[in-house]
Structures are given as C-alpha cells and as structure tokens.
C-alpha cells in the first residue's frame, strides 16, 4: 500500500522529513476502512433499490413527515441558538462579572455530556410533573412529548456551535472601528447593528449552520423528550431505527441516503455562504 | 451614566468617552441577565437535575444502583470500547496530522474534508452503515459468521461504530497545531543526525503533547458517551452489549429512574472532569494547543 501511495501522491517539495509514505499510507488505509467503505456500502445498497422503489420509500408519507419534523425543529432551535449564542458570546467577551470563567467553560457542556444523559434530564425537567413543566402546565403550555420538546433538546445540543464560532471573531474586533463609528456620530445601537453585527454575520451564519446540521441528525437527546408520535414528533433518525428493528433495511437505507444527501447539500450551502461573506466583508472573519 | 441613553450626535462632545463605545449600565445588566438565564435554564438546570434525581432516595440507593451486575458490566464495556477506539484514533490522528501538516501534496484539502466527514453524519447513520456491511443480509456478514466471527451485536461492532463517530477528533486538533509549528525543528534534528523515529519521539512528540492530550480528551468523552451509533449496532443484549449510555436508556424506560440517573451521574461526572481538564489545558498551554477552540 505505502509504496504505491508514494508514487501517486508524491510530496511536492523534496523534504528531509521522513515518514510521508508511512503516515499517508496509515491515514488512507484507516480512512478507507472506517469511513469510505461503510459510506459507499450505504450508497451502493441504496442504488440497488432502483429509482422507483427508492422514491416510493423515501417519499413515503411518514418518512416525509419525519424529515420535515427533523429539519423544522432543527431550524427553529438553530435560530434560538443564533440569538442567544451571540448574546452569550458578547457577554463573555465584553463584560466582567463573577463566575464568568465557569460560565465560559460550561458552554462546552453539551459537547462533553452524553446525549442520553441530556435527554433524560431535560425530559424530567419539562415533563408535566417536572420543575419547569409543572410551572408551564397551568398556562396551557406543553413542552415534553411535543415538537417543542424536540426544540428544547436541540437548543441544548447546538448552543456551543454558535458561541464557539462567534466568540473568537468578537475577540478580534478592533475597538478603533467602534470609536470611528462613534466619532462619525453613530449612537451605540447604530454602531452595533450597522458596524459590529455585519462583521459577525459570517461567523454567526456558520455557527447557525453547524447547529442546524447537528440538530437534524441528533438522536440521543431527542428520543426521550419527543414522545415519538408518528406524523407529529417522530424524527427521521428515529424512523431509521424503527425500520431497522422491523428488518426493513430498504426503507432504513432510503431514509439514510436522503438525510446524507441533504447534509451534504447543507455543507455546500455553508461553504458558499462563507466564501460569499468573505468576499463581501473581506475582514478575514 | 443614566444620561447616556440615546445621545444625539450634537451632544457627543459632552458625553463621557466610554459611552459611545460601550453599552449603558441597563443594557449591560439586561444582556448579562439574559445570557446567565439562558445558561442556567438550558445547561446548569439539566446538569443539576441529573445529580438531584440520582440521589433522590439517598446515597445508599445510588450506590446500590451502581452495584447492580448489569450496570457494572455496562461500565466495563464502556471502558473496553473506549480503551480500544481511542488509541486507534490516536495513532490515526498522529499519522494524518504528520502527512497533512508536514508535507505538501495533491488532494490535501480533499483529504482533510474526508477526515471531517463523520462529523456531518447522523449518529444513527454511523451505526446503520455497519449494520448494512455486516448484517445478516449483507455480503460480508454470513461469510464472517461461518468462521465464527461476530461483528454486530458484539464488541467489534461497538468499537467500529465508536471509531467512526470519533474519527476526526485527534486529527482535527493536531493538524492546525502542527501546521503552525512548521518543520524547522524536525529539519534541525535530522541535520544533526537523528533518525526518523528519534526525530518523532524526541522533537515532534514533546512539541505536540498537550495538543494531543486535548484531542484525546475530547475523543474519549465522545467515545464513552456515544449513544445513537452504538445503539444501532449493539442489539441491546442485557449484561453483554449495553454500554453505559444504553444502560441509562434501558433503566429509564423501565421507570427505574434512580438507577438510570445514577449511571447518568457517573457519565455527567466524566463530562465535568473533561471540562475541567480541557479548561486547565486551555489556560496553561494555550500556545501549545491549536489556537482556536473549534470542534
């Protein structure tokens, strides 16, 4: 494997550092075995279904509903995260208050806490007899076991994405830009909305898209709180699991392929947004 | 300060210097309250709930729940799976970062994208691909079965799914760090007569050790906490193929809430330990781990 890789992917500049063939060989072998073959297997199985069969499975009413619920709730959650993520990043970058360092570290909790743990904790809180659920029940608001519960779980899961993409860009903002705006007569609100926020747009959109993409595929934290009612609060990843448990591999494969395709489409959109904004606000953000 | 609200351009010279480039005290207080309220509601309250529910019936019940043989075997299985998956991805991550950061070659950007691929795949799909590859109606499954090799519903399947899900962690942490460090240290070592391995062990490894630890930490947290992917390949055989997160699900669905939250509390402790170590590394060795804190 290694010698062949060396001939085809020769290092461009002659280097005294050894190990190119070995390192690239290990990388390509491992990548092929763990990622490329399994993913190709999925696509191959999916292509074996035939177009008519594939479309019938992928656009089955329950599947379309599940996909709509996954994408819809992930979108709403990503919007919530965009708004509060930007506020949280701003507060962490600009202000001083007690416990700030702890709060900053806690932002990464959703990355570190297993999703199943988050799922049962949120369900316990938002269930009709839970701390938050029992406060909302008299107002006629139900969160757990409704699509709103899915949004709550996805807000938890997606929060760090927005904060951690926006925060470093905020730290780089040159104070002089704000001073210039103020000198030219802008009040603080104008400076924020017309000078600072446009500069944060690329990072904000990237964080939004990352949170959205993560939310669409999320499973562990959602299934406990969602109630999992078909056509109402059943997410697409759960439908894949249900089809697998019925040994309906064809349907599971078709749903997974549609989800993969939509995720790649989203990655493409993310990259387009980023390169567009880089051209428009060429501030290196 | 109270007068600063909505200063008109004509009054600009008379306003204090800070007013035009910072928010009013009221605005600050509101934003801080919003941010803290959000963190409290969505992060701290769920975390607190885990521990409150785990100790709802006292420490005795908590310990009894953890002493259950099925739970104990779930803990062992989680340690085994992470113990295999993390070192595998550590070796891969170092190799990938060495190739990508120290050399120039065609297709490098594409290779980097492929390494990130598992991050954009739903955990359930990460498990599904292995079910399709090794399942009963696949090409490989029956052949392996005839040789007595069990992949699905056994440790190898759990390890494969976990390796897939945690695939990019170490590589993503090391690539930017090693690119930043360049190749001059290694070139110097080589010119002084060091062999390739000596260069790696005595020059490169000490340079990247904190970044490597950082990547391994995140990789391990995900490996031990993964739910969706392992759930699909596990088969949920009690006492045999249930990892800790799967055990949490089973106990919870049986309305055994104290036991479910007791296992969950262990996982939450792991998450907290990860956060503490991660923050310590960021504070102490910020120049020796990749400058940005991406995931």
From TrEMBL, chain A:
Cellular compartments annotated: Cell membrane
Coarse class of the protein's main subcellular location: membrane
Membrane topology term: Multi-pass membrane protein
ABC transmembrane type-1 domain boundaries: 67-270
Keyword tags: Membrane, Sulfate transport, Transmembrane, Transmembrane helix, Transport
Domain of life: Bacteria
Signal sequence region: none
Transmembrane segments: 20-44, 64-93, 105-127, 139-163, 195-213, 249-270
Subunit details: The complex is composed of two ATP-binding proteins (CysA), two transmembrane proteins (CysT and CysW) and a solute-binding protein (CysP).
Assigned protein family: Belongs to the binding-protein-dependent transport system permease family. CysTW subfamily.
Protein function: Part of the ABC transporter complex CysAWTP (TC 3.A.1.6.1) involved in sulfate/thiosulfate import. Probably responsible for the translocation of the substrate across the membrane. Part of the ABC transporter complex (TC 3.A.1.6.1) involved in sulfate/thiosulfate import.
PANTHER family: SULFATE TRANSPORT SYSTEM PERMEASE PROTEIN, SULFATE TRANSPORT SYSTEM PERMEASE PROTEIN CYST
Protein name: Sulfate transport system permease protein CysT
Organism: Sinorhizobium kostiense
Automatic annotation (TrEMBL), chain B:
Keyword Hydrolase: no
Segments traversing the membrane: 31-52, 72-101, 113-135, 147-171, 257-277
Keywords carried by this UniProt record: Membrane, Sulfate transport, Transmembrane, Transmembrane helix, Transport
Record-linked PROSITE patterns: ABC_TM1
ABC transmembrane type-1 domain residues: 75-278
Compartments where found: Cell membrane
Superkingdom of the source species: Bacteria
SUPFAM superfamilies, per the entry: MetI-like (SSF161098)
CDD domains found in the cross-reference section: TM_PBP2
Membrane topology: Multi-pass membrane protein
InterPro entries: CysW_permease, MetI-like, MetI-like_sf, Sulph_transpt2
Pfam family, one: BPD_transp_1
Protein task: Part of the ABC transporter complex CysAWTP (TC 3.A.1.6.1) involved in sulfate/thiosulfate import. Probably responsible for the translocation of the substrate across the membrane.
Quaternary structure (record): The complex is composed of two ATP-binding proteins (CysA), two transmembrane proteins (CysT and CysW) and a solute-binding protein (CysP).
Protein name: Sulfate transport system permease protein
């Amino acid at each position: 494997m290694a010698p062949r890789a060396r001939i085809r992917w020769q290092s461009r500049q002659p280097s005294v550092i050894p190990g190119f063939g070995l390192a690239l060989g290990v990388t390509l072998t491992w990548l092929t075995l763990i990622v490329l073959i399994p993913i190709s297997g999925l696509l191959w199985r999916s292509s074996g279904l035939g177009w008519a069969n594939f479309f019938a499975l992928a656009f089955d009413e329950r599947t379309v509903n599940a996909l709509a619920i996954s994408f819809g709730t992930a979108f709403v959650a990503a919007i919530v995260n965009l708004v509060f993520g930007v506020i949280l990043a701003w507060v962490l970058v600009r202000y001083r208050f007690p416990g700030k360092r702890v709060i900053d570290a806690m932002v990464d909790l959703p990355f570190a806490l297993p999703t199943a743990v988050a799922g049962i904790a949120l369900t316990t809180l938002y269930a009709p007899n839970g701390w938050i659920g029992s406060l909302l029940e008299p107002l006629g608001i139900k969160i757990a076991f409704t699509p709103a519960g899915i949004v709550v779980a996805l807000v938890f899961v997606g929060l760090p994405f927005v904060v951690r993409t926006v925060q470093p860009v905020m730290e780089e903002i040159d104070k002089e830009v704000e001073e210039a705006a103020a000198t030219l007569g802008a009040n603080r609100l104008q400076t924020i909305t017309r000078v600072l926020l446009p500069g944060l747009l690329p990072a904000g959109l990237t964080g939004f898209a990352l949170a959205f993409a993560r939310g669409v595929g999320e499973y562990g934290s959602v299934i406990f709180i969602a109630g999992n009612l078909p056509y109402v609060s059943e997410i697409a990843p759960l439908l894949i699991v249900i089809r697998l448990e019925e040994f309906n591999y064809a349907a599971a494969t078709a749903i997974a392929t549609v989800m993969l395709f939509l995720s790649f489409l989203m990655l493409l959109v993310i990259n387009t947004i980023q390169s567009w904004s880089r051209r428009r606000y060429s501030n290196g953000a | 300060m109270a007068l600063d609200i909505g200063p008109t351009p004509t009054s600009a010279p008379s306003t204090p210097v800070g007013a035009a480039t910072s928010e009013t005290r009221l605005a600050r207080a509101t934003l801080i309250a919003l941010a803290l309220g959000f963190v409290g509601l969505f992060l701290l309250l769920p975390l607190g709930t885990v521990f409150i529910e785990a100790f709802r019936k006292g420490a005795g019940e908590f310990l009894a729940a953890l002493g259950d043989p099925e739970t104990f075997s779930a803990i062992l299985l989680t340690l085994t799976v992470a113990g295999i998956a993390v070192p595998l991805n550590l070796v891969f991550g170092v190799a990938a970062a060495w190739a990508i950061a120290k050399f120039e070659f065609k297709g490098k950007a594409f290779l980097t994208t492929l390494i990130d691929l598992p991050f954009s795949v739903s955990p359930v799909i990460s498990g599904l691909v292995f079910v399709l590859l090794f399942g009963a109606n696949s090409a490989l499954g029956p052949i392996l079965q005839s040789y007595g090799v069990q992949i699905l519903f056994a440790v190898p399947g759990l390890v494969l799914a976990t390796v897939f899900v945690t695939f990019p962690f170490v590589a993503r942490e090391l690539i930017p760090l090693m690119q930043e460090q360049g190749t001059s240290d290694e070139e110097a070592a080589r010119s002084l007569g060091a062999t390739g391995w000596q260069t790696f062990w005595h020059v490169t490894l000490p340079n990247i050790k904190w970044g490597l630890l950082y990547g391994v930490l995140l990789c391990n947290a995900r490996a031990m906490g993964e739910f969706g992917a392992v759930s699909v390949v596990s088969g949920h055989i009690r006492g045999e193929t249930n990892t800790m997160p799967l055990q949490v699900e089973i106990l919870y669905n049986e309305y055994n809430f104290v036991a479910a939250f007791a296992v969950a509390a262990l996982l939450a402790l792991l998450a907290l330990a990860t956060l503490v170590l991660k923050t310590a590394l960021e504070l102490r060795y910020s120049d020796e781990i990749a400058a940005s804190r991406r995931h």
